[in-house]
Specification:
By secondary structure, the protein is mainly alpha-helical. It is built from 16 helices and no strands.
Length: about 425
């Protein structure tokens, strides 16, 4: 069956399936753990506390947006192209920059007014975790570049299981969103440090080449990612600000399961970026259309299936969030659009289409914020859901234009394999 599709589509599906098998196992276990944590949130946390938890999670993401978020992509690309001895240098530069960001975050937490209902304790934990977590999670970029998906899967599974147990225990014992988010970050940081030390034991201590090109590209991606990371949190922040913590809880539960489907499609960048970076751009562009067609069929089937079974899932597992069903069904359709964006963004990153990435990220921020602000005030949660769908559709059209209707990169003559 696989060989049939390989011949018809002229794609190396067996390679992707073999490498993606490890990541798929991680994803499946992640779904199960997400289900357990969702059950804990639904049955052990009041809606207002869960809304607070999601707000703190968004605040942490915004703090992380100020770190060198693009370094991991640049590191994966460099290691995939056989650069050796660069890991330690990259970590050093990240620690220096992230220390400055942590100091700024602490000043904000200690001396400036916080959002209503938010205390200093969880934000202090998040601030210190940002320093370590966003530095040492570079281990994932190292193993991704090495195409060692077995270790990546082990790291992902072990971290997910420990985080799940921590969340359930704290939700049961404290019924507090602040304590749950604090424990979540402490555990995640410890696990990142552990796998960072594993990389140090494995990597040969050889004279490293100059990391300046990697840093320059990583910094450029970080600036670009800053806008994207803010945009991805805009719906949560605006929902909390305009509609309150309970509305954010209802919206977050509606988005949780469709987002797990999108999580499966996020396996694609991990598989595609090393392949893209090592191949001729014109060849990748011609094959990308076939991948998009295949992905669209898979995503559409998954979305339609979810629309049918969503009422059963909520009535059986989340009876306290039945009002989320209709929103969740609508958001599952949005995940089809979001899924198609993923390989397009991977392509733009692999071939350093900086201008296109900057424009698309700013477009996402402006579209998400403006449409949600306008619609949420008038239509409530439905305004947020529709705003998300409209914004995602416009962004997909923009990414398609940048991918297929712009000139090839001047530096696209990389080794053809």
């Amino acid at each position: 069956m696989i060989s049939f599709f390989e011949k018809k589509l002229n794609l190396h599906l067996s390679t992707y399936i073999k490498e993606g098998g490890f990541l798929a196992v991680s994803y499946i276990i992640g779904i199960f753990c997400t289900l357990l944590t969702s059950l804990a949130f639904a049955h052990l946390l009041p809606k207002s506390e869960y809304g607070l938890y999601k707000l703190l999670l968004s605040i942490s993401a915004i703090m992380g947006a100020f770190t060198l978020t693009g370094i991991n992509t640049a590191t994966t690309r460099a290691i995939a192209q056989n650069s050796t001895g660069i890991y330690r240098k990259i970590i050093t530069y990240q620690l220096l920059w992230n220390s400055l960001i942590t100091i700024c975050a602490l000043i904000y937490v200690l001396f400036f007014p916080l959002p209503q209902g938010v205390t200093k304790f969880p934000l202090l934990i998040i601030s210190f975790s940002t320093l370590l977590l966003t530095t040492y999670n570079t281990y994932s970029a190292y193993y991704n570049g090495k195409r060692n998906f077995k270790v990546l899967t082990t790291a992902s599974i072990s971290t997910t299981i420990v985080q799940t147990l921590t969340i359930i225990l704290l939700a049961w014992s404290t019924h507090s969103g602040a304590y749950v988010i604090s424990g979540f970050f402490v555990v995640q940081t410890i696990m990142s440090i552990y796998f960072h030390l594993k990389v140090l034991r494995e990597e040969k201590d050889v004279p490293a080449p100059s990391v300046k090109p990697i840093l320059n590209y990583g910094i450029k991606l970080s600036i670009i990612s800053f806008v994207k990371n803010i945009a991805e949190q805009s719906d949560k922040i605006l929902t909390f600000s305009l509609l309150g913590p309970v509305a954010l809880a209802i919206y977050s539960f509606a988005y949780a399961l469709p987002d797990q489907m999108r999580g499966f499609y996020k396996i694609i960048p991990s598989l595609a970026l090393p392949h893209f970076s090592a191949k001729d751009e014109s060849r990748v562009r011609s094959q990308l259309k076939k991948y998009l067609l295949l992905l669209f069929g898979i995503a559409l089937f998954g979305s339609c299936t979810y629309v049918l079974i969503a009422p059963i899932i909520f009535h059986t597992l989340f009876p306290t969030y039945l009002e989320s069903i209709r929103y969740s069904q609508a958001l599952s359709i949005t995940t089809v659009i979001l899924a198609l964006q993923i390989p397009l963004v991977s392509y733009l990153n692999a071939y350093k289409k900086t201008r296109a990435i900057i424009i698309s990220n700013f477009a996402q921020l402006i579209l998400d914020s403006s449409i949600i602000i306008i619609c949420a005030q008038q239509y409530g949660i439905w305004g947020v859901v529709v705003g998300k769908m409209v914004s995602a559709t416009i962004l997909l059209l923009l990414l398609l234009v940048f991918t297929f209707f712009t000139p090839l990169s001047s530096s696209e003559q990389v080794t053809h394999s």
